[in-house]
Every structure is written in structure tokens, then in C-alpha cells.
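Here is one chain, start to finish.
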Amino acid sequence: MSTTLSVEKTEPGGAILRDVLRKAIRLRELQLVVAIAVVVAASAVAHPNFISPGNISFMLADSVVTAVLATGQTIVVLAKGIDLSVAPILGIAAVVVGFPAQNHNLPIVAALGLVVLVGLVLGVGNGLFVSVTRIPPIIATLATLSVYGGLQFIIANGQEVVNIPNAYDALGNNDVVSGIPWVLVIGVGIAVVVALFLRHTNVGRAIYAVGNNAGAAHRSGIPVQRVIFATYVVSGVLAGIAGLLYLCHTGSADSTTGTDSNVNLTSIAATLIGGTTLTGGRGGVVGSVIGAVFLSVALTAMVFARIPAIWEPAGVGLLILLAMVTDRHSSNLTARARRHRQGST
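Its structure:
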């Protein structure tokens, strides 16, 4: 009798523990951390310099621009949209502040205000097309990708930023401590603010509600089109800030900055790899930031392995497909578990 009672008492606790472990294993953030550790370990065995402080600092700094873009992309995708114009917004911001910085030593604070203004204006353009004219997001932002790209070409006028002030270079390349660059601290700070905004404000919760079910959100009193408009404005502002960070990190900008380096693709890849789904309403900024770090580590590992750079977009595309398949599998498992629970009750 006592043995039976003991089993009956411990069995629920064991079931709870198994359920907690199962959920932890399915967490995209944990999966990505493990994947990063595996790539780093494998690369370090083949190339010991892969884990040198200089290369670690480079990979972290290199991931920041993608992480900031993915943070804005995450907000848009959570509301069941997509922003294909972040590349030229980044490029316009970089050249708009790059030339005054190079020629007139524009202070960084003024540069920050300028890129925020640029991102705000261009983000408003996207928001109006999607929320007011109701053009599908992929069509609207594909159009503004071309329009903003042409505007960037006009602003740059065939010239190139090649010499930025020391303060910009220090912000983009110096470390707070060995292996931890200043630009990473800025990127993490932005991600933390946006994550708190999404989880702990009415607007943030409204974004999730719109992505889950826009019709139900409208019936509950949420101004759906205003929320959608706001997501593109925030994405534009963050893309503008990413332009400044890109300028500080690389020290250059021209008429093709952003559009020539697949930042649209990598921002979407980091978002999807991080667990934010294109169906909206599920995901978050933390996963997107870790996804950006994973991309930086994976692409750097390809360089160390002497894989030609021409294969990088193919690798990123493959990771997007893998993320989509994983999400579909996870959704099927969740639905099956839900049906099982309903059937058992």
C-alpha cells in the first residue's frame, strides 16, 4: 500500500518536470544558443583563432546591425506584416549623416537625431501605404525598396564616405572590455527597450493581438490600422539607427550601402530563425537578437572554412527554410498536444 501511495504522489511531480524539460528543449532561444555553441566549438577545433578575443569582438559587433534591423522587423512581422525596405532606409541614413560627419565633423548626438528623423519619415511612408491604402505589405515595401533605393542614389550622387571622425570609429569598433564592443552594448540596450515595450505596454500587447487575429482585435476595440502603421514607423526608426551603427562600424557608406549586402535577407532570416512566425502574433525580440548572433557566427565560420562568399546568401536562405520547417513542425506538435488534452478531458 505504501509503495503505491508513494508512486501516486511522485508521479505528478515527474510529469510536471518532464513537461518543463520538454518546453525548455523546444524554446527557440535555447536551441539557438546550443547551435551557436556547436558552431563555435567545431570552428575552434579546426581553426583555433576563431575564438580569439579579436574575432569574438568582430562577430558580436558584426551582428549588431542585423540585430537592430531584426528588432524592427520583428515588430512588423508580429503584426503579420513584413518590411523589405530596411536596406535602403539603412543606406539613406548612413549617407545622410556620413557626408556631414566626414566634411564637417557632425557630432554623434546630432547624427543620432538625424538618422531617427530619416527613419521616421521613411517609416511613415511605409505605414501609410500599408495601413491607409491597404496595399499588401510585401507589395508596398517592395515598391518602397525601389523608391528609397533611388533616393539613396540621388543623395549619394556617386560619392562615397571614406573618412569618418575618430569618435564614430571608436563607437563602432572599440571594446568596453576585451571582446565586448561598445556597439554591442548599444544594440543590446535597444533590444531590451523594445522587448519591454512589446511585453509590458498596451501598444505592445496590441501588436500581438493584431497579429494573432486582426478581426478579433478590432472587435475588442484595438485600432488595428493605427497599430500596423506604428509598427512600420518603429521599423523605419530602428533601420535609421542601424544605418548610423553601420557607418560607425565600417567607416564607409555610398549609394549601394545596405542594398549590396543582403541586409533585407539577413534581417528577415534573424527574425524567423529567432522564432517569430510570418503568421503573426508569436515570437519576440530576444530570439531575433540571438538569431542575428547565430548568423554572424555561422557566416564567419564559412569564411574560416574558406567557403566562397557567393554562397553566403544560399546559406542564409537555407537557414530560413529550416526555420520555417521547424516552426511548422512545432505548430503541428502543439496542435496535436492540444487535441490530446481536449480528448483526455
